[in-house]
Write a structure and sequence with these properties.
Distance between the termini: 33 Å
Number of domains: 1
CATH topology: Purple Acid Phosphatase, chain A, domain 2
Strand content: 15-25%
Strand order of the largest sheet: 3-2-1-11-12-9
Mean pLDDT: 97
Oligomer: single chain
Helix content: 25-40%
Low-confidence stretches: none
Structural class: alpha/beta
Largest sheet: 6 strands, mixed
Radius of gyration: 17 Å
Bound molecules: zinc ion
Number of helices: 8
Shape: globular
CATH superfamily: Metallo-dependent phosphatases
CATH architecture: 4-Layer Sandwich
Order of helices and strands: EHEHEHHHEEHEEEEEEEHH
Length: 245
């Protein structure tokens, strides 16, 4: 079975379509959260994700947009985008966001937006120490898929070893998953990468070969910036698409 991982789409339909084109042929899709927020196409992205029958968990922006989380947790630009997105969505879409689960458990993996160490508080995993707290909550699962930080990277834990390895993958790459080791895979962000590479990020998990490939996909970000300008979204959010930061 092959799974296409698409996280932190953030209402960027152009990036999403580019990624889906690249992932054509995978058996199933998984989204570790934040379908909306920041970008100009929230309704279109929700509809496209629904068409994929995609396993989706709740992201912090999804939660804020549908009124489940106080926007005061966010910086002013994010808050403005959250309010714009709330206005742009209809009741049915807001309801669909409100019923997304915080975690999803399958046979071979578990999915959460931030970390299993308090999923409802959306903590970030940006260091081996933060990854270790998530590993502690993984139970029997060997693989955890996360998003949230918009950074493509993989954390590896060996049994009986305190330290956790952090493997940055800003240019993409493939990793074979070894039996007995445990992994946290951040597939990066489709719609607003922040690891210095402006290309959309996604991943493929092959559950038979036990391998993960992070894939970076160029897309027409100036077209997205134009739509964001016309929508009146904050300038900083428009500029950062160009730098992937
Ligand atoms: Zn996000």
């Amino acid at each position: 079975m092959t799974y296409g991982l698409v996280s932190d789409i953030h209402a960027n339909l152009t990036a999403l379509e580019a990624v889906l084109d690249r992932l054509r042929g995978v058996d199933r899709f998984v989204c570790p959260g934040d379908v909306v927020g920041y970008g100009p196409d929230p309704a279109e992205c929700l509809s496209r994700v629904r068409s994929l029958d995609c396993v989706t968990v709740l992201g912090n922006h999804d939660a804020a947009v549908c009124g489940m989380m106080n926007p005061s947790w966010f910086n002013p630009d994010a808050r403005e985008a959250i309010s714009w997105t709330h206005q742009a969505l209809g009741e049915a879409d807001l309801h669909a966001l409100s019923i997304l689960p915080l975690t999803h458990e399958a046979n071979q993996f578990v999915v959460v937006h931030g970390s299993l160490a308090g999923p409802e508080e959306f903590p970030y995993i940006l260091s081996p120490g933060e990854a270790r707290r998530c590993f502690e909550e993984m139970g029997d699962h060997g693989v955890c898929f996360v998003g949230h930080s918009h950074v493509s990277e993989i954390y590896v834990q060996q049994p009986g070893v305190f330290g956790v390895d952090q493997i940055g993958m800003p240019s993409g790459g493939k990793l074979d998953l070894r039996p007995g080791l445990r992994y946290i895979v951040n597939c990066g962000s489709v719609g607003q990468p922040r690891d210095g590479n402006p290309d959309a990020s996604c991943a493929v998990f092959d559950s038979e070969a036990m391998a993960v490939e992070i894939i970076r996909v160029p897309y027409d970000f100036p077209a997205v910036q134009d739509r964001m300008r016309r929508a009146g979204l904050p300038q900083f959010l428009i500029d950062r698409l160009e730098f992937g930061a």
